[in-house]
Structures are given as structure tokens and as C-alpha cells.
Design a protein that fits this description.
single chain; alpha+beta; Rossmann fold
């Protein structure tokens, strides 16, 4: 395309397949249209190209758009509706059926709480497709649903009670006019009862009981009226803003446009009023009385001239619409919306005490609306209560926590369990770059938002210059192959970042040998880290977890982390006081952790290459052999 020029096109995306389908439907194109190839597929293009400097640019482009619409709409609209209908059907088939009660369980750092956000949004708003949105957009939607009360988050703990969760008697302080205070006790609803009551509230929508008389109806009636007048050789005359003058409609073109002339002269100019532009004006000006300058305000909406002609047609149509009876508004009941209660660390509370008799009511067939529905009388309010069928419960459970063993058996039977395991593959640099690519697939590669995220990721991974040079070619290859068809486009390149994928796999393999897989380390501790920030994560998260797992047995911790992180203390003979006592404590070995965060750390190890002053990077190399 020539610089500073405009082309009017109709694009068909998703490659040649759609273009071939549309090509067959359109048949031979009029002389003023042509097929052409473009980046994402094919286009039907208007042969006339327009320069940005043309004085009548807007008018000409609008005419070209009308030409394109007239030549394609009737032939394509049925097929487009069919495709859309099929996609909606596929969407319904792909709806995820979420269990009413589910628990995500796994070792710490495997994304249990992270994934509750995804699941809660999917449940509360099924039309929100996670794969089509960035993480920020997903969190924004989560916040919106939380602000509406559709998603509620809570955490169980040792002090949580039935009174906090269902209902209980809580003290309140009342103060009268003279400042005297007294304590009163009221029944207060708990977290679960509040969200249950919200989920039970009926929803209504105001709807019209009479089918609305629309612009389309008025336009069709006008065209019929015009044709009748033309048959009688008595053209329909429309009033204009100037008294005693008007415009007569002398013809209706093949494209459905109206042809108007002033009533005072047969030789005067013919004005054309198109359906599409008149509809835009109708939407912009439902009340013509508010218009102060017709020429200026109409031109801002549709461009061009002919303001008087458009005003006369619009005035006729508006009067037709006003003559129709006012629609009666009725209240229609709507289906219930899904609600989600997230219970983080569900195993940390005394589940039997917190749920009480509700442990039975949360079963699917015992929910309200089912044949086997049950209700109970609550002990404090003495009111009937049942669990709504549109309330979903998502719990999280840390398998490394010893309180898992105490999880109520009744609760286990009523929840479906989904295991969340460490995913070292999420730390793979090639996959991370590809994931970013698809997250921003709608953006151009010089888009500032995409470039900002790409620069952050490249800096995090320590991307080589070779990759930066070749990335454009690889992007084209990824786009050509399509999403999900292939992976590993960037695996051959070198990265400056520590191989976190291998590091996590190595640590977890050793933990599983020494304890079990339930005490693994999650990938979350490595996500978003570089060679510097991982050091803090190592000492604040990973090593403390290992100390907890092995109850301070530094020998086993050393088997996981290696000599680069754990060293044997030298036993001093004078460590104990002088006292006659037979013991073997002096023979016990003591260990200590090497803290590479301390700049004064001077740890020397004898390795194959000789004595080496250790640092964090060398210690990691030693850990991974």
C-alpha cells in the first residue's frame, strides 16, 4: 500500500480456508472489487484507493464502504450466521462442568491458591475464556466478581468456629444519648450463610411485552409508502426545517437508497439518502429537537453534505416510531448466577466443628432444588436453611502440612480432589517465550505493551543476542504453525539464567527418595526469579521448607542440597564443661548452612579442579552435579 493512502477492504481471517469458502459464495465480483492476499488471510478490496490529502476523503470512503457492503452482505450474511451459530454450539460443548465441591491439594508452591482464581472466574463467568486473556485481565475479572459478592475468599485456621462460618451469637455495644453503653447479643450470619443467601436471591430483568418498532420497521414502511406514491405518479413529499418547502422522493435505487428532489424545481439536484448512514444518524439523534446546527452535527456523524435530505427522512421515521404504542414493561425472572466460596488451607481448621450439620447439606443431591433436597433448622436463628445448588466450594490443601491426616473423613467423601504437582516445565525458557507470544498474539511485535513485557522476560532469562536477532523469523514460524501445534522453538539457544527447570526436578527427585512426593518443592518459588533474586527465595523459602521437612536433620538436607550449601562443623574438644559423665555427644557431627547472601562468606571447597572459593552459582552447579 502506498504511503498516506487508504484502502477499503473486507478481511477474512484464519488463512486460505475461510477465504475459499467466501470466494465461492461471492462468485464473480463487480468490476470495482478485487481479491487480494494480506498478512492473516485474504481480503475483498475496493479497487479505488484514496489519498489522505483528498478534500472529499470521508465522503468517498463512505461511498466505497457502501459499495463493498452492497456487493457482499446479502451473499455472506447467512453463512456468517451459520458459522457463528456453529461456534456458539462448539462453545457450549466445550463448557467445563465443575464439581460443586472440590479441593486442590499438593505440596507448597504448586499454585493451588493461584489456580483458585482461574477456577473461580471460570465458574462465576463461563463466558470469560481464560486462554483469551492475560493474567492481569483474569485478576481484574476476579476482582470485579469479588466486588459483586459472587466470589468470596476465606482461610480456615485453628480458631475458626461454626459461629464464624454459619451463624452465631455475637456481642455488640450500644450507646444511648447520654453516653451510657451496654452490651447486647444478636444472631449474626457467618461467611457461608451470607454467600448462600446471596446465591438464593432471585434475579429479574425488565422486558418489553410488545415487540419494539425499530428503525428497520420504519424504513421498510417508508420504502413501501414511497413505492405506492410512485405507482400513483404522486411522489411522497417530506417536510424540511424551512416552512412551506419540502423534498419529494422520486425514486428508490437498486441498492435501496432514496432519491430526493426539492418540490419547487424539476431541474434541481438529486439528493441521495442511504439506509446505513440514515441508521447511524438515527442512533446518534433519536430526538431531532436537540440539534442546533444540522449541517455541522450531521457531518460529524456521517460526513459529506445532504444534511437537509437526511433530516427530512429522519424526521419522517422518528414520527412513525412515536406514533406506535408505548411498550409495556414486564419483569422477567432470570436464571440464578453461579457463586463461588474459596476456602484456603481447608485442612487447617476443625472441619467437623466448622461445618457442623452442613456437612450433609453440601452434597449435590441434598442441595436446594433437587429431589433429595434437605433443610435444617439453625440452632441460633431457628430458621430453616438449605444450601443452594448454584454455590460452588473450592478448597485448597497443603499435603506437606501434618494436619492433612486429621481431615474429616465425611469431608473427604463429599469433595472431589484435584492434585496440583510441581511443574518444572513452566520454568522452561523456550516455553516461557512462546507463552508470552500467544498471550499477545493480537498485538503487533513493535507494540509498546508487548515490547515492555518481552524486554522484562528477555532480561529475566538472560537471552542471547543470537536469539534476539533470529526472533522475528521464529515468530513467523510459530504463527504459521498455529497455537498448540508445536513447541520448543527457542530450545537451541543459550540462556544466562540458571536452569531452574533442572534444578527443581533435581531437588524434588531427592526429596521423594528421602520422604515422599507430598513434600516436594513447588515451581512458584522459582517463577519470576533471575540469578540474583533466586538467592533470597532459596534462603527464605526453599531451605526453611527443607528444615521443616527433615526436622532439622542437616545430614538429609545435605543429601538434597550438596556440599555447596551444607558444611560439617569441626567439633571442638572443649565444647562441654568439665564434668564426669559418660556420653557420645562429643562424637556427634554438627552441620551449618552456608549463607551466600553474606558478602563476607569465604567458603573454600576441595573440588576436582582444586581448592575453589564457593559462591551461590558454583553451589548450584555442585547441587546439580
Amino acid at each position: 500500500m502506498e504511503k498516506n493512502s487508504i484502502s477499503v477492504d473486507l478481511h477474512f481471517e484464519d488463512g486460505d480456508e475461510n477465504a475459499e469458502l467466501m470466494r465461492g459464495l461471492l462468485g464473480n465480483l463487480p468490476d470495482y472489487l478485487e481479491w487480494k492476499k494480506w498478512h492473516y488471510g485474504n481480503s475483498v478490496s475496493h479497487q479505488t484507493k484514496f489519498r489522505l490529502t483528498d478534500e472529499d476523503l470521508v465522503d468517498n470512503v463512505v461511498v466505497a464502504l457502501d459499495d463493498l457492503f452492497d456487493a457482499t452482505f446479502e451473499k455472506l450474511i447467512d453463512k456468517i450466521k451459520e458459522i457463528k451459530s456453529n461456534k456458539m454450539s462448539e462453545k457450549k460443548d466445550n463448557i467445563i462442568h465443575h464439581p460443586l465441591n472440590q479441593i486442590l491439594y499438593g505440596p507448597p508452591g504448586t499454585g493451588k491458591t493461584y489456580n483458585t482464581i482461574n477456577k473461580a472466574v471460570q465458574i462465576a463467568n463461563p463466558d470469560f475464556i481464560l486462554s483469551d486473556h492475560t493474567r492481569k485481565q483474569i485478576k481484574d475479572e476476579y476482582k470485579r466478581l469479588s466486588d459483586e459478592g459472587r466470589i468470596v475468599f476465606t482461610t480456615f485456621h485453628q480458631s475458626m468456629t461454626y459461629e464464624d462460618f454459619i451463624e452465631g451469637i455475637k456481642p455488640k455495644i450500644e450507646e444511648n444519648e447520654d453516653g451510657t453503653k451496654k452490651v447486647i447479643y444478636e444472631v449474626e450470619e457467618g461467611i457461608f450463610k451470607r454467600i448462600s443467601n446471596d446465591a438464593l436471591k432471585p434475579r429479574f430483568k425488565n422486558e418489553s411485552s410488545i415487540e419494539a418498532y425499530t428503525f428497520d420497521d420504519a424504513w421498510s414502511e417508508l420504502v413501501e409508502d414511497v413505492n405506492k406514491h410512485l405507482e400513483d405518479k404522486n411522489p411522497l413529499v417530506l417536510t424540511i426545517q424551512t416552512p412551506d418547502l419540502g423534498l419529494k422522493i422520486v425514486d428508490v435505487s437498486d441498492k435501496g437508497n432514496l432519491q430526493l428532489k426539492p418540490i419547487y424545481s424539476e431541474d434541481s439536484k438529486i439528493y441521495t439518502v442511504s439506509y446505513s448512514r440514515a441508521e447511524k444518524l438515527s442512533q446518534a439523534f433519536p430526538d431531532l429537537s436537540v440539534i442546533k446546527n444540522v449541517n455541522k452535527e450531521f457531518r460529524e456523524v456521517i460526513g459529506g453534505s445532504n444534511s437537509t435530505a437526511y433530516w427530512s427522512v429522519l424526521n419522517y421515521i422518528n414520527n412513525k416510531i412515536k406514533q406506535k404504542p408505548v411498550n409495556e414493561i414486564v419483569e422477567k425472572k432470570l436464571p440464578s448466577l453461579p457463586y463461588v466460596l474459596i476456602i484456603d488451607e481447608i485442612n487447617r481448621g476443625n472441619v467437623s466443628q466448622i461445618f457442623g450439620e452442613l456437612i450433609t447439606l453440601i452434597e449435590e443431591d441434598k442441595r436446594l432444588g433437587h429431589d433429595e433436597a434437605l433443610q435444617i433448622t439453625l440452632p441460633y436463628s431457628k430458621k430453616k436453611f438449605g444450601v443452594p445448588s448454584n454455590l460452588y466450594i473450592i478448597g485448597t490443601m497443603n499435603t506437606a502440612d501434618r494436619s492433612v491426616e486429621a481431615l474429616d473423613t465425611a469431608l473427604r467423601r463429599r469433595f472431589s480432589f484435584e492434585e496440583m504437582l510441581p511443574k518444572p516445565e513452566l520454568l522452561n525458557p523456550s516455553d516461557m517465550i512462546e507463552k508470552l507470544f500467544w498471550e499477545y498474539q493480537e498485538h503487533s511485535w513493535d507494540d509498546k505493551d508487548y515490547m515492555s513485557e518481552e524486554n522484562k522476560l528477555f532480561e529475566l532469562l538472560g537471552v542471547s543476542e543470537d536469539l534476539k536477532i533470529k526472533k522475528g523469523h521464529i515468530w513467523d514460524e510459530i504463527e504459521y504453525d498455529g497455537k498448540g501445534k508445536k513447541t520448543g522453538y527457542f530450545k537451541e539457544f543459550n540462556y544466562g539464567r540458571i536452569d531452574f527447570q533442572k534444578l527443581l526436578s533435581t531437588i524434588n527427585e531427592r526429596i521423594e527418595k528421602l520422604i515422599d512426593k507430598d513434600h516436594a518443592i513447588g515451581h512458584a518459588y522459582f517463577i519470576g526469579k533471575n540469578n540474583q533474586t533466586i538467592i533470597n527465595s532459596f534462603y527464605k523459602n526453599i531451605i526453611p521448607l527443607l528444615q521443616e521437612y527433615f526436622f532439622g536433620d542437616y545430614g538429609k538436607i545435605g543429601l538434597v542440597l550438596g556440599r555447596g550449601f551444607i558444611k560439617l562443623k569441626e567439633n571442638a574438644s572443649s565444647v562441654f564443661a568439665d564434668f564426669d559423665y559418660q556420653n557420645d555427644y562429643s562424637e556427634r557431627e554438627s552441620y551449618e548452612i552456608i549463607d551466600y547472601r553474606n558478602p563476607d562468606t569465604n567458603y573454600i571447597l576441595k573440588l576436582q579442579e582444586g581448592e575453589t572459593k564457593m559462591d551461590f552459582a558454583r553451589a548450584i552447579e555442585l547441587l546439580m552435579k
